[in-house]
């Protein structure tokens, strides 16, 4: 078990085994005692257990250093080779690493006591069956890994694949109206046709109803928390959280010893935005937390959708503003989202379609064929990049794109991006 977890080489295992055999035999000689095979194996396993640190010990401790954020932690690991090597590196070497400097190097040298805090966290994780996901692990959310400010370590309790084929984040106000409840319910119910994983924050309002509906219709749903897994906030969502662990999961970047502060919640929004394929805002005031999530999602080039409402309704002003300012595409149903994402329902998956690409290519003008070829290679592209690659004037590009969109050849996305239908 220990050899598998620490990935020791055959040579390392042999040397370690020989070393402890000598120690134990010397001990027996000094104390003039005979030793049975079972007793020897017991003593050997104890020695191994006390000498071999948990493979995640240094990774957890690294996230506990106050002056080292995710980007710097990745930088340190890249230069030193591993989290353990970071703690063992001399100050002179740490200072030479870009962006570290004297003050941060000293904070790393002075943080050896954090290994004890990390041991406490490991025990908590073992007691409650919590899975650590380091950014180098294959189970770490791949979509999130592409975001430059993503955390390097996540704590996860659940049973679903965080790299599911289709993930939608459903967000919005805590002060949900009856209209918001009805729209959230219908959107999530529609998304069942595409077997989507529903992501949200387990807060009051839209989050709660998105998770609850997903549970009701049999979709996996994951809650991204703004605190450690030693608590559930709000407390009245504890029952829902237990069901989510059985049909999805709970995820956080915070350990059980981290302070629970309001600042954590805007921070966790970047995980919600980064893990999904698209964000849908059901209801939001114009300065709501959901708008923060949308801004982050747009910076990640994610698709964003918003459900419109009446102009005088406080918790529709945010959605209406996002649509009006082209930060989100208007949708009314889950089917609208599936169409915009070009997702077929499960019933239609596997049905062969005849796109007749040859006929389409022949019907395009030379300039349209050039744009088509670029989009076919890039899958999805911003208009500025399209101008740079094609070498055509931006005005002409805009004219061609409009024509191609009207002919259902391309599809426009938020953020002035385009892809082929």
List the SSEs and their pairings:
Blueprint (H helix, E strand, L loop, with lengths): L1 H5 L3 H21 L6 H15 L5 H7 L6 H11 L2 H6 L2 H5 L5 H9 L4 H15 L2 E4 L7 H4 L7 E6 L8 E5 L6 H14 L5 E4 L5 H12 L3 E4 L13 H9 L1 E5 L11 H12 L2 E4 L7 H11 L3 E4 L10 H8 L4 E2 L3 H7 L16 H7 L2 H13 L1 E3 H8 L3 H13 L3 E4 L3 E4 L1
Parallel strand pairs: 3-4, 3-7, 4-5, 5-6, 7-8, 8-9
Antiparallel strand pairs: 1-2, 2-6, 10-12, 11-12
Helix pairs in contact: 2-3, 4-9, 11-12, 11-17, 14-15
Percent range of helical residues: 40-55%
The pLDDT mean sits at: 86
CATH architecture assignment of the largest domain: 3-Layer(aba) Sandwich
**Domains counted in the coordinates: how many?**
4
* Sequence of strands across the biggest β-sheet: 1-2-6-5-4-3-7-8-9
According to CATH, what is the class of the largest domain? Alpha Beta
List low-pLDDT spans: 1-16, 42-50, 350-358
User: Per DSSP, what share of the residues sits in E-state strands of 2 or more residues?
Assistant: 5-15%
Report the CATH topology name of the largest domain: Rossmann fold
Number of helices: 21
């Amino acid at each position: 078990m220990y050899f598998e977890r620490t990935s020791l080489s055959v040579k390392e295992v042999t040397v370690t085994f020989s070393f402890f055999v000598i120690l134990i035999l010397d001990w027996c000689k000094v104390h003039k005692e005979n030793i049975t095979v079972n007793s020897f194996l017991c003593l050997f396993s104890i020695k191994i257990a006390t000498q071999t640190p948990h493979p995640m010990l240094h990774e957890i401790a690294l996230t506990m250093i106050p002056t080292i954020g995710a980007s710097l932690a990745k930088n340190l690991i890249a230069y030193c080779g591993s989290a353990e090597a970071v703690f063992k590196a001399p100050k002179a070497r740490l200072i030479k690493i870009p962006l570290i400097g004297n003050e941060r190097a000293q904070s790393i040298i002075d943080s050896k006591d954090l290994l004890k805090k990390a041991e406490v966290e490991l025990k908590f994780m073992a007691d409650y069956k919590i899975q650590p996901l380091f950014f180098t692990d294959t189970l770490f959310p791949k979509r999130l890994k592409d975001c430059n400010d993503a955390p390097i370590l996540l704590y996860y309790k659940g049973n679903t694949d965080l790299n599911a084929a289709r993930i939608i984040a459903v967000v919005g106000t805590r002060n949900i109206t009856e209209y918001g409840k009805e729209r959230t319910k219908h959107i999530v119910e529609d998304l069942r046709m595409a077997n989507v994983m529903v992501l949200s924050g387990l807060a009051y309002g839209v989050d709660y109803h998105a998770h609850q509906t997903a549970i009701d219709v049999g979709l996996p749903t994951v809650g991204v928390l703004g605190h450690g897994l030693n608590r559930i906030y709000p407390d009245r969502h504890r029952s829902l959280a237990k069901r989510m662990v059985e049909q999805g999961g709970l995820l956080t970047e915070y350990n059980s010893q981290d302070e629970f502060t309001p600042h954590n919640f805007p921070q966790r929004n970047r995980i919600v935005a980064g893990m999904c394929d698209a964000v849908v805002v059901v209801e939001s005031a114009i300065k709501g937390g959901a708008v923060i999530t949308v801004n982050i999602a747009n910076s990640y080039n994610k698709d964003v959708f918003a459900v419109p409402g009446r102009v005088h309704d406080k918790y529709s002003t945010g959605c209406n503003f996002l649509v009006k300012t082209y930060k989100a595409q208007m949708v009314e149903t889950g089917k609208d989202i599936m169409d915009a994402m070009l997702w077929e329902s499960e019933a239609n998956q596997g049905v062969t379609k005849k796109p007749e690409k040859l006929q389409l290519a022949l019907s395009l003008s030379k300039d349209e064929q050039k744009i088509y070829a670029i989009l076919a290679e890039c899958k999805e592209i911003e208009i500025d990049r399209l101008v740079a690659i094609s070498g055509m004037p931006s005005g002409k590009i805009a004219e061609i794109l409009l024509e191609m969109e009207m002919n259902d050849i391309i599809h426009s996305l938020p953020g002035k991006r385009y892809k082929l239908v």
